[in-house]
Every structure is written in structure tokens, then in C-alpha cells.
Design a protein that fits this description.
The complex is a heterodimer of chains A (312) and B (430). Chain A is an alpha/beta fold. Chain A has helices at residues 45-53, 93-103, 108-121, 137-149, 167-183, 194-200, 218-223, 265-273, 288-296, 298-311, and strands at 5-16, 19-30, 34-38, 60-65, 78-81, 155-159, 186-191, 203-208, 211-216, 228-232, 249-251, 254-258, 280-284. Chain A folds into 2 domains: 5-217, Rossmann fold (3-Layer(aba) Sandwich), CATH 3.40.50.300; 226-284, 2-Layer Sandwich (Alpha-Beta Plaits). Classes of the chains: A alpha/beta (312), B mainly alpha (430). The A-B interface holds A 16-17, 46, 50, 53-56, 72-73, 75-76, 78, 80, 82, 84-91, 99-100, 102-105, 144, 147 and B 4, 7, 10-11, 14-15, 18, 22, 26, 226-227, 230-241, 407, 411-414.
Chain lengths: 312, 430
């Protein structure tokens, strides 16, 4: 009987020279789920994925992929889009997809037929016989992505799949990830863009400094932070601050503060009794981004932002 | 066959097919395929130029005999008879017979210099100063004790002149009694290989494999650079074991080499069919000890192994290079290695059975060359089975080591820095 886990990792460690890149990461990726590995730049996401795929060997720890202790044994059932995209520039798009499928055991004829179908579905039908060097970067990236799913893998591993794509193609990619999940595949992807993870992930792990800091659902992550109240009084005076919790922060006419431990009702009564009135009130759950910042730490996120700015 | 092995073979062939197609279906490949023709054309043009210069010089070169008029016919006849033994390009210079003269401006009997012998010597010396011809050797004096002067590179011409003089003297003295030999010539085809034929075939085998691998195996060195530069290597490494990637690239490029050899083999075979009977008979003398059909098979096998051995080493080293400049820098050491292996194997082929031959046959990189020579010199077949297995083992070792170095060096850190730079950096840091 197949395990309920598509991927497991226990205590994965990796050192490059004297630098510890991954320090004891544990992962449990359920079959048929979309699983996000989140973390700032340099957190060890790519190294972790490469160890799971058997591209590099861990210094310590164990992993299983689709029930195999050696990822190589399952390589024909895995699709992979690396962070550093790469295709042969002189190859035609359809041949490139078929070639990537052939590496994973798909016969060339079937690969070419499926490549054409996938390209049509992805809106790239006009580029089927174009050489890779003539495609835009985004199109080439989509072609490579199609190459990673052409053999209909049981596990799809995508390393920073959204980077380099325009918003339209990002939407297409999200749709493709959901379609792969619906087909029955497990999707494991890394990203540091929270909005995508928030929309598509069933479960996620947050890695920072080579260590896993969180594992659970998106709601679990968001639930780590208290809910937030946005309150706008009828009067614009400062006196209302005396009735609000100590952490209340004013932003124009609006006040923000964490939902009090006793709930909102006692506070509402106090505000009404105090004559401040209620012009607007909403209770929000914090986004994944805030949860991520809380889990990873502001410094790591700032470093990440600086790196992104430098890269830009 | 296990599913693991089947998968490895399939993956290897997928990589090989991609590399073969990517190499062959390009305009550059035509240039590569016809490179020998271009090289041969330049060689022929150079050869024609050199030949015309040489012909111009040889047209004026002469051997000269200073003889009384009555001896001239005998000398000319003897020259004609003896010259028939030489091939055209090996024949001595044309014979010119001139009469002994009197030194101009000196009356006979008034000066010791008018002594005929002295005058003949002066006349002979003067031949080397003439501008209308270039004397190679000059004979003067009586035919039974002539004096022969010769210039630089004229020693053999002088020997020939002495032979002609002797023959002419014998003809003059014996007249019609001069014995004439009428020989019956019959060409013999050997049943068994001659020692010289075996040595020649050994040299041809060693040189042939060297020549082919020199041209073809060096191409492998830069093939991994394509994957590194295009960043395709990450996809390949995730899907296929690096050993299969390396072997696939090697097999793909070997396919290109086989295509090249097949094309030119066919061309040379057709030209060979047009050879004159004499040349064909001469080639027939070059018979290897194992017999021609077996030798052809072994030649093919050893060419394959030489290509795979050298190719796997070059591929492993080249995979560490990240730029074209680094790859170009590798071409010199690669050529040196190939020439060194050729030298070792040639020495082994010339001295079969010696310790040098054994070293060349055992050392992996020279083994295919030396064993091809061995096949020409020795009829035993079992050493070839052992040698091929031994060489195959080393191909496996070289590919494994190359893949391991690549995995540990290039993939492990994600760095494009080759291992020798990392070593140097590490040493510097310490």
C-alpha cells in the first residue's frame, strides 16, 4: 500500500565548505497536496529541494520520495523545474518538451504529441516549432514548465516557479499547479512570494537560516497571529484612545489593534457607552506575509528585500 | 536485465541522441566533415609547389664524364643499361659526356699545366662552376682508374658514375663477348605474413588510431560546457545520473566520429580500388599476424576503446572548465597526451615482447594503440579479450571519477568554479 506521504525528510543537513546551508530540516509532504516551501533568499530552500531530488546528497538525515529511499529510483515519476531555467537554444519548443519527457521515460512520439497539446492549452500553440532562442524569457520558462509535466509525474517539484513571469503567466502557472493537483499529482514548490503560496498551498513549511521554522496549513500560519481589529469612531478626537487597547495605532481616522483576549463585545460596549460611536469596524485575520515576517523575523525579511532590490 | 539498467541505458541513449543530432544537423558539421578535403587540398597545393621547385633544380642537375670521343658511346650505353634499374624519381642525374679540352690561351708543351691530366682536372673542377648545368659528380681520367669529383649530396651520383665506368670498360674490352643476362621475373605472393609486413601493419594500426583519435576525441572536451552555459545541467542532473549524462555525451560524440570515419573510409576505399596492381600488391604484403579480417575487427574495437578512454578523460577534465577560454587552454595538454600515447605505442609496436611493449599495453591510455600493434605482430587472440575488458574497466573508472568530480565540484556548491580553482582558493585560505 502506498504511503500517505509523497515526500518525507528527516534531519536533512548540508554544508558547503564551512557554511551550514541546511541544518536539520524535516518535511512531510502529503500525497496529492500542494506543498509550499517558503523562506527568504538564502534560507536553504533550493538546497533542500536538490537534496530531495538526489541532485546533491545530504551530509546527514534521510529522505524518501514517492516511497523510495533513493530519489533516483523514482526519477521517472518526478517533474522538476529548477530555479535556474535552462533549455537548449537550438531546439524547437516541442522537441525540448519531448526531450525533457524522454529523460523521464516518456517515449518520444507520445512526448511530441503531448507537447503540442500542452502548448496549445498554455496558449503557446503558435510557438510549437519555434526554436527556444527565438522565444521570450517568459515563454521559454513556460516551455520548460510544460517539459516538467509532460510525462504526467506523480510529484512535481518547482523551485521559485513564479519568478521571472509576468502577472498573466503567473496566473497560468497557478492554474497549472491546481490542475496538476486535481490530476492527482503532489506539487512541491518553493517561493518567497507569499501571495501565491496563500492562494494555492494546502500545506507549507517555512525555512529560514537553514532550519524549518513552521509546518502546517496557511490557516495555521495565519492563526499564529492574533486577529486584527480596524475601528473608525464617529468622532475624530484623541479621547477614544483611552478606551482602546494599549497597542492601538492610529492611521488617519482609523485605529488598528489586536483583537482583545476577551473578544470584541466588551470593547464595543465600552466605546458605545463612551459616546465614541462606530463608523466602521472590521475584524481581519492577518495575511501569510505577516505570519511569515513574524515566524522568520523582520531582519531576515529585510535582508531578503535588500537582496531583491539589488537583484532588480 | 534489471529495470535500473534498462533505465540507465535509455537515459544514456536519450542524451547521446540529443548530442548526435545537435552536432550533425548543423552547417558547421559539413565543415568538419570536409576538413580533411580542405587540408588535403592545401597539402596538394603545397606539394605541387615544392615539387615544381625540386623539378626545376633537378632538370639542371647532371653527372659529367670527361672522356675521349671513342669512349663516349660505351659510357652512354652502360648508363642506359644501368639506369633501367631505377625508378624514375630515384634515378641518378642525367649523364653528360664531354671531351677533354685544352686550357684556353696556353700553347701545348710550353707549360707544365698543359699536361693532359692537369688540364682534365682543371676542366673537371670547372664543371662545378658552370651556370648552364649543375654538376653533381664529374668523372675524368682513364676508365680503369678514373677520378671522380662530387659536390654536396653527390656521393651516390659518384658511386653510380664509378659503376657506369666499370660497365663501360667491360663492354669496351669484351666487345660482343660481354655476357648478357636475360632474367625471367615472376612476382610471388607470400602465404604467411612477413616480419616487415607485420611491423608495417603494426605501425599503420597505431598511426591510424592515433590519427583518428587526434582529430575526433578532442571534440568531447567542450561538450559539457554547453549544458553548463545553458543551465540545462540542473534538469539533466535531476532526471539522469551524471554517469549516464557523461556516457551519453561520449556515445553521442562517438556516433559523430563513426559517421566521419564511415564517410572517409568509404571514400578512401573507393580510391584504393583504383590503385595500380603494383601498389595493390605492395599493400597485400602488409599482412597482420592475426589475419586481415580479425585485424579489421580489432582495429575497430581498439579505435572505439581509444576514443572512449581518451574521450572520457577529456570529458571529465573539460566538464570542470566553465568558459571557452578554459576549454581552449586544454587543447595543448590534450594534444600532448595523445602524442605521448602515440610515441609510447609506436615504440611498443617496434619492439614487441619487450618491457616497453608491456608497459604500453597495460597503461590504460596507450593500451588500445599498443594492442592494435600487438594484433599486427602476434597471432594470439586471448590477450585482446583481456585488453578490451581492461580498457572497458578504465572507461568506467574515468567516467565515474569525472562524474564524481563534477557532482562534488560543480553541482555540490552550485558554483561555476572548477575544482582546481577551489583547491587553490582553499589552500590560499589556509
Amino acid at each position: 500500500m502506498a504511503s500517505e506521504w509523497a515526500v518525507t525528510a528527516s534531519g536533512l543537513m548540508k554544508k558547503f565548505g564551512q557554511r551550514r546551508v541546511v541544518e536539520g530540516v524535516d518535511l512531510m509532504v502529503p500525497r496529492g497536496a500542494i506543498y509550499g516551501v517558503l523562506g527568504p533568499n538564502g534560507a536553504g530552500k533550493t538546497t533542500t529541494l536538490r537534496m530531495l531530488l538526489g541532485i546533491i546528497e545530504p551530509d546527514a538525515g534521510t529522505r524518501t520520495v514517492l516511497g523510495h529511499a533513493s530519489p533516483r529510483e523514482a526519477s521517472d515519476r518526478i517533474g522538476y523545474l529548477p530555479e535556474e531555467r535552462g533549455l537548449y537554444p537550438a531546439m524547437k519548443a516541442r522537441d525540448a518538451i519531448a526531450f525533457l519527457g524522454a529523460l523521464r521515460g516518456l517515449d518520444r512520439k507520445t512526448g511530441r504529441v503531448r507537447a503540442a497539446e500542452l502548448m496549445e492549452q498554455a496558449g503557446l500553440g503558435h510557438a510549437i516549432d519555434e526554436k527556444i532562442r527565438k522565444l521570450s524569457k517568459g515563454m521559454a520558462q513556460l516551455v520548460q514548465l510544460l517539459g516538467s509535466v509532460v510525462h504526467q509525474p506523480d510529484l512535481l517539484v518547482l523551485d521559485e516557479p513564479f519568478s521571472g513571469l509576468d502577472p498573466v503567466n503567473q496566473e497560468k502557472l497557478e492554474a497549472l499547479i491546481l490542475a496538476e493537483r486535481d490530476r492527482g499529482a503532489t506539487v512541491l514548490f518553493s517561493t518567497h512570494i507569499m501571495s501565491h503560496a496563500e492562494r494555492v498551498c494546502d500545506r507549507l513549511a517555512i525555512i529560514a537560516g537553514g532550519k524549518r521554522r513552521f509546518e502546517g496549513t496557511v490557516d495555521d500560519a495565519r492563526g499564529m497571529l492574533p486577529q486584527r481589529v480596524l475601528y473608525t469612531p464617529r468622532d475624530a478626537g484623541e479621547a477614544v484612545a483611552l478606551a482602546l487597547p494599549a497597542d492601538a495605532v492610529r492611521d488617519g481616522n482609523q485605529w488598528r489593534f489586536e483583537l482583545p483576549a476577551g473578544g470584541i463585545e466588551p470593547l464595543l460596549a465600552t466605546l458605545i457607552d463612551g459616546g465614541h460611536g462606530i463608523q466602521g469596524l472590521s475584524i481581519e485575520r492577518p495575511g501569510l506575509h505577516e505570519a511569515f515576517v513574524r515566524i522568520v523575523g523582520r531582519d531576515a525579511v529585510d535582508d531578503d528585500a535588500t537582496t531583491l532590490e539589488q537583484a532588480a | 536485465m534489471s529495470s535500473q539498467l534498462k533505465r540507465s541505458i535509455r537515459q544514456t541513449l536519450t542524451i547521446a541522441r540529443r548530442d548526435f543530432i545537435a552536432t550533425v544537423f548543423t552547417p558547421i558539421f559539413l565543415l568538419f566533415l570536409f576538413a580533411p578535403l580542405i587540408m588535403g587540398s592545401f597539402g596538394a597545393i603545397g606539394g605541387l609547389g615544392a615539387a615544381s621547385v625540386a623539378d626545376g633544380a633537378s632538370d639542371k642537375t647532371r653527372i659529367v664524364a670527361i672522356l675521349p670521343r671513342d669512349l663516349a658511346p660505351a659510357m652512354t650505353t652502360a648508363d642506359t643499361r644501368l639506369r633501367a634499374a631505377f625508378r624514375r624519381d630515384e634515378a641518378p642525374p642525367t649523364l653528360t659526356v664531354i671531351e677533354p679540352g685544352i686550357e684556353p690561351g696556353i700553347a701545348p708543351g710550353t707549360d707544365p699545366k698543359t699536361d693532359p691530366a692537369v688540364v682534365a682536372a682543371r676542366q673537371a673542377d670547372a664543371q662545378f662552376a658552370r651556370h648552364d648545368l649543375e654538376a653533381s659528380a664529374v668523372l675524368y681520367g682513364p676508365l680503369d682508374a678514373p677520378t671522380i669529383l662530387y659536390g654536396a649530396r653527390g656521393s651516390r651520383a659518384a658511386d653510380y658514375l664509378a659503376l657506369v665506368a666499370g660497365d663501360a670498360l667491360a663492354a669496351q674490352r669484351l666487345g660482343s663477348d660481354m655476357p648478357r643476362v636475360v632474367a625471367t621475373k615472376r612476382q610471388v605472393v607470400r602465404d604467411t605474413p612477413s616480419a616487415s609486413g607485420q611491423h608495417q601493419s603494426a605501425f599503420f594500426a597505431v598511426f591510424g588510431i592515433f590519427f583518428l583519435t587526434l582529430f575526433l576525441s578532442g571534440q568531447v572536451v567542450g561538450t559539457m560546457a554547453e549544458e553548463r552555459n545553458n543551465k540545462v545541467i540542473e534538469v539533466l542532473a535531476a532526471a539522469v545520473p551524471l554517469e549516464s549524462v557523461f556516457l551519453g555525451k561520449l556515445v553521442g560524440m562517438f556516433g559523430v566520429a563513426v559517421l566521419f570515419v564511415g564517410f572517409w573510409g568509404t571514400v578512401v576505399g573507393q580510391i584504393g580500388a583504383l590503385l595500380p596492381p603494383g601498389a595493390a600488391a605492395a599493400l597485400a604484403e602488409i599482412v597482420p599476424a592475426v589475419g586481415l579480417p580479425t585485424f579489421v575487427i580489432l582495429f575497430g574495437a581498439y579505435f572505439t576503446m581509444a576514443y572512449l578512454l581518451l574521450g572520457s578523460v577529456f570529458l571529465g577534465v573539460g566538464a570542470q572548465a566553465s568558459t571557452m577560454r578554459e576549454i581552449q587552454m586544454l587543447s595543448l595538454p590534450i594534444t600532448i597526451i595523445q602524442v605521448a600515447m602515440f610515441g609510447l605505442a609506436t615504440a611498443a609496436a617496434s619492439h614487441p615482447g619487450t618491457w616497453l611493449a608491456t608497459v604500453a599495453e597495460v597503461f590504460p591510455l596507450s593500451s588500445p594503440f599498443a594492442m592494435a600493434g600487438h594484433a599486427a605482430n602476434s597471432p594470439g587472440l586471448w590477450p585482446h579479450v583481456a585488453a578490451l575488458a581492461w580498457q572497458l574497466l578504465w572507461v568506467t573508472i574515468f567516467i565515474s571519477v569525472g562524474a564524481r568530480l563534477f557532482r562534488r565540484g560543480v553541482l555540490q556548491s552550485g558554483s561555476a568554479r572548477p575544482f582546481w580553482r577551489r583547491r587553490a582558493r582553499h589552500a590560499k585560505a589556509n
